[in-house]
Amino acid sequence: MSATAGARKRGKPASGAGAGAGAGKRRRKVDSAGDRGKSKGGGKMNEEISSDSESESLAPRKPEEEEEELEETAQEKKLRLAKLYLEQLRQQEDEKAEARAFEEDQVAGRLKEDVLEQKGRLQKSVAKEIQAPASADIRVLRGHQLSITCLVITPDDSAIFSAAKDCTIIKWSMESGRKLHVIPRAKKGAEGKPPGHSSHVLCMAISSDGKYLASGDRSKLILIWEAQSCQHLYTFTGHRDAVSGLAFRRGTHQLYSTSHDRSVKVWNVAENSYVETLFGHQDAVAALDALSRECCVTAGGRDGTVRVWKIPEESQLVFYGHQGSIDCIHLINEEHMVSGADDGSVALWGLSKKRPLALQREAHGLRGEPGLEQPFWISSVAALLNTDLVATGSHSSCVRLWQCGEGFRQLDLLCDIPLVGFINSLKFSSSGDFLVAGVGQEHRLGRWWRIKEARNSVCIIPLRRVPVPPAAGS
């Protein structure tokens, strides 16, 4: 056996070119198999890697794609702007809705006040804020020779009209205190001369628009004037005795008048016409007042009644409460009023009750010798419209301010304002910033007493509010 055959038999590789060629063939087969395995495995790897490689290949292109996405089409831009515009509109509508709701709340509050005012239940609390003025702060306007009997303030608080027993009417500037106009006394039987009053002027009224001024005197006449120029317009006749009370219905030119002839008359000033006459009082009527409703209230003097006249129904409500002559009356709101009498009492009334809701006796104290004391007569009353503030006047050397309690069932004294003389007329300004008093040496309806030290004058009393205390830490 040859060496080659032995080597083959033992499985040893033969040396030589043949063996090398065989080995080379086997390596190629293995390599080819390995390559095939690699190619198979590499195929799987390539599939797995291909996604990675794709992501890697896409990664550098991502910003470019984002830029491409940011580059909108014209349609997309329109859609985006439309959405933005709609959002702005929605925000604006929300803001408008909030503002509208706020305004509606304010309007609702005002409407509520208006309804309460119409029903006569509005009662603003201002009395506690009023500070008693010092005597030096009171402005005194002198021009009348005799006692002031009545006065009115223009609706804009710019001027005061005062009248007196000297038969004259003076228009005063509220700001400067100077005379703006004087309507002199008219001589009886003097024709062709400027018109005026020839007897004591007892009452005046001014329309709520400030256009007309009405004045009534002891000669049974009612004179109508243009308030701005003080030019005489008309003269109303018809009363059979002294005209003692005048009042315009608010918001209209309807005029109510009352007289010592016990009647109440209705006039239309704008049309210079008489409307009707109402009867009911049993004695001379002393005073009258009215607000916006088609009705008026009267103080019945010696017949001891307060009456509410319902003009459309031609009916009246009769109230009792004072023991003496009821000489003055004033409406606080549409449902409440205050009156004063010569028995020294001040009464608060509600139209639903025939008796006073509150009665303050001896409101200005007593006068006279011990054992013979008599109460000071109440010669004038006034109320700040729709509030709880009331003022009363007498000849007790002071004007008194009062606070009406809740429901007008109580009257509490706030302060005294020193004024010497008969306080024959009181009026609050529309703003409530001041009170005007007509002062005389005698009572407006007679000469029972005469206070020599008094000055016949118009007194402007400022009503300052108590400053609100500063908050803690401010």
Automatic annotation (TrEMBL):
<comment type="function">
    <text>Component of a nucleolar small nuclear ribonucleoprotein particle (snoRNP) thought to participate in the processing and modification of pre-ribosomal RNA (pre-rRNA). Part of the small subunit (SSU) processome, first precursor of the small eukaryotic ribosomal subunit. During the assembly of the SSU processome in the nucleolus, many ribosome biogenesis factors, an RNA chaperone and ribosomal proteins associate with the nascent pre-rRNA and work in concert to generate RNA folding, modifications, rearrangements and cleavage as well as targeted degradation of pre-ribosomal RNA by the RNA exosome.</text>
</comment>
<dbReference type="GO" id="GO:0006364">
    <property type="term" value="P:rRNA processing"/>
</dbReference>
<feature type="repeat" description="WD">
    <location>
        <begin position="319"/>
        <end position="359"/>
    </location>
</feature>
<keyword id="KW-0597">Phosphoprotein</keyword>
<keyword id="KW-0698">rRNA processing</keyword>
<dbReference type="InterPro" id="IPR039241">
    <property type="entry name" value="Rrp9-like"/>
</dbReference>
<keyword id="KW-0687">Ribonucleoprotein</keyword>
<keyword id="KW-0832">Ubl conjugation</keyword>
<dbReference type="GO" id="GO:0032040">
    <property type="term" value="C:small-subunit processome"/>
</dbReference>
<feature type="region of interest" description="Disordered">
    <location>
        <begin position="1"/>
        <end position="75"/>
    </location>
</feature>
<feature type="repeat" description="WD">
    <location>
        <begin position="141"/>
        <end position="182"/>
    </location>
</feature>
<dbReference type="InterPro" id="IPR001680">
    <property type="entry name" value="WD40_rpt"/>
</dbReference>
<keyword id="KW-1017">Isopeptide bond</keyword>
<dbReference type="InterPro" id="IPR036322">
    <property type="entry name" value="WD40_repeat_dom_sf"/>
</dbReference>
<keyword id="KW-0677">Repeat</keyword>
<feature type="repeat" description="WD">
    <location>
        <begin position="236"/>
        <end position="277"/>
    </location>
</feature>
<comment type="similarity">
    <text>Belongs to the WD repeat RRP9 family.</text>
</comment>
<dbReference type="InterPro" id="IPR019775">
    <property type="entry name" value="WD40_repeat_CS"/>
</dbReference>
<feature type="repeat" description="WD">
    <location>
        <begin position="194"/>
        <end position="235"/>
    </location>
</feature>
<dbReference type="GO" id="GO:0034511">
    <property type="term" value="F:U3 snoRNA binding"/>
</dbReference>
<dbReference type="InterPro" id="IPR015943">
    <property type="entry name" value="WD40/YVTN_repeat-like_dom_sf"/>
</dbReference>
<dbReference type="Pfam" id="PF00400">
    <property type="entry name" value="WD40"/>
</dbReference>
<feature type="repeat" description="WD">
    <location>
        <begin position="278"/>
        <end position="319"/>
    </location>
</feature>
<protein>
    <recommendedName>
        <fullName>U3 small nucleolar RNA-interacting protein 2</fullName>
    </recommendedName>
</protein>
<keyword id="KW-0539">Nucleus</keyword>
<keyword id="KW-0694">RNA-binding</keyword>
<keyword id="KW-0007">Acetylation</keyword>
<comment type="subunit">
    <text>Interacts specifically with the U3 small nucleolar RNA (U3 snoRNA). Binds a sub-fragment of the U3 snoRNA surrounding the B/C motif (3UBC). This association with the U3BC RNA is dependent on the binding of a protein called 15.5K to the box B/C motif. The association of the protein with the U3BC RNA was found to be also dependent on a conserved RNA structure that flanks the box B/C motif. Part of the small subunit (SSU) processome, composed of more than 70 proteins and the RNA chaperone small nucleolar RNA (snoRNA) U3.</text>
</comment>
<keyword id="KW-0488">Methylation</keyword>
<dbReference type="InterPro" id="IPR020472">
    <property type="entry name" value="WD40_PAC1"/>
</dbReference>
<keyword id="KW-0853">WD repeat</keyword>
